[in-house]
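Appendix B. One record, verbatim.
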Amino acid sequence: MKGQLFLYIAATAVAAWGGITDLKCRKIYNKLTLPAAAAGIGLNGALAGIWGLKNSLLGLALGTSFMALWLMGTLKAGDVKLYMAVGALAGWKFCGYAMIYSVLLGGIAAAWLVISQKRGRRVFGRLKLYLENLWYTKNIKPYEPEDDCGYFSFGCCIFAGAAAALWRMWPV
């Protein structure tokens, strides 16, 4: 149990580092995510044997499932790799909670930004046009912001989701 808690904390720390670099540099580096994923697989295997290895690989696969959002252009590749690293370190259940919490918290943060910047009418107008285009053409195209203000650091949301998952999974 102590080993699993260590891995939960490590996954949250990796997510924090990724969130900081995403916020500062608009990039989540491979030199963070790839070694963290490899370390997660190795540590899980060493600490819990076959069960730990299976848990880690399922977490990695669950993180990989968000590649569909990358293909649609809603997430960047670094975000997906950060999910993969969190899943490889902490396992599938922790990764699942982190994903759910990060999407919910990201939606709240995005809505707050749109409302606070008083850009709601323009943003929702563009969203309406995007969805109409998707409906009529059945052609998924990546979202392209109209200006630099359209950047949203989802790495911070992944960290918030991992922190919420850590709180949820913390042994009582």
